[in-house]
Amino acid sequence: MTRIRDLEVLRRRLRYRKTFATALGASEESEVLYVKLITSDGEVGYGEACPAPRITGETVETCEVVIRKLFEEVLRGAEVYSYRDLWRRMERTVVGNPSAKAALDMAVHDLRAKYFGQPLWKVLGTEVRELETDLTISLGDVETMVRDAEEAVRRGFRVLKVKVGEEPRRDVERIRRIREVVGPEIKLRIDANQGWDRVTAVEVLREVERYGVEVVEQPVPYWDLEGLRYVRERVQVPVLADESVHIVWDLVEVVRFGAVDGVNIKLMKCGGVTPALQLVEVARAHGLKLMFGCMGESRLAITAAACVAAVAGAEYIDLDSPLLLVEDPVRGGVTYEGPRIVLPEKSGLGAELVEST
Ligand SMILES: [Mg+2]
Hints:
The chain has helices at about 55, 60-75, 85-95, 100-115, 120-125, 140-155, 170-180, 200-210, 225-230, 250-255, 265-270, 275-285, 300-310, 320-325; strands spanning about 5-20, 25-40, 45-50, 130, 135, 160-165, 185-190, 215, 240, 260-265, 290, 315, 330, 335, 340, 350-355. By secondary structure, it is an alpha/beta fold. It folds into 2 domains: about 5-120, Enolase-like, domain 1; about 120-355, TIM Barrel. The two termini are about 35 Å apart. Magnesium ion binds near residues 191, 217 and 242.
């Protein structure tokens, strides 16, 4: 019997290489919280929370409180392989707070895979070892975005995720100019982060479709499911929900509305590996496409997300946050080779925290 005995929580601020901006706001740094679950035989499971107050309403402060409560009430003394029981009990103990739960659930999956002596991707049931991520072009003035797009292509990225959702004419200009400099082969995904209303979204999307846009994420506010459907019925480009779908009930609701062609799954929105697997099954059962995305997390949480994305066979991979950060206090985990993400060979998440940096 290998039981969870102790919890350690560490907060870190990770600086972005340059200001990261979307239609929801700009950030200079990402605040994360690492958890270590320590078992009776001294094994350590690692997890990471990267709360996004504008999206889930959590902060590092609230995450820490919720993590400590869930540890005391659910995880202390639990068997390391019982991830489904633990997930259900976490859900019953505290509603919402997905980033806090994601850190704990991820650490449980890390421990469980280590218990079986295998890497997480293998335990979850895939032999896919490689993914190709896009690179996000932060929202800014048109010239800066054009330069960032050129640089991304020079670095070998073949898919760019362009942040828009600001002034509609400038948004069209952004896509027109970026397409002009990157050429016809590069795929462009666009993400409005709720920045348009439904009428503006249709106008902009009809304009930019001629420049070849692969998908559009969250064109309208998260609560406007009717608006998502309105947009979807009037444009060619597939519409993905991001902020509208956190957990499986949200997904059921967008499906009921016929609101989207796909969904962006993030561990920090849904609460970890266990609920992400559930979202994958429900989305696939309704014929939806899948994107795997991230907030500003380091390679620890990205490794967990990449394992689920590999199992899911996700069409769109947007797991680029470690590439946007100056520092990454994680050793092991996924490695990046240009746009390629390679999953680790070591057991569990194959990653650990470098606490001295
Ligand atoms: Mg998004």
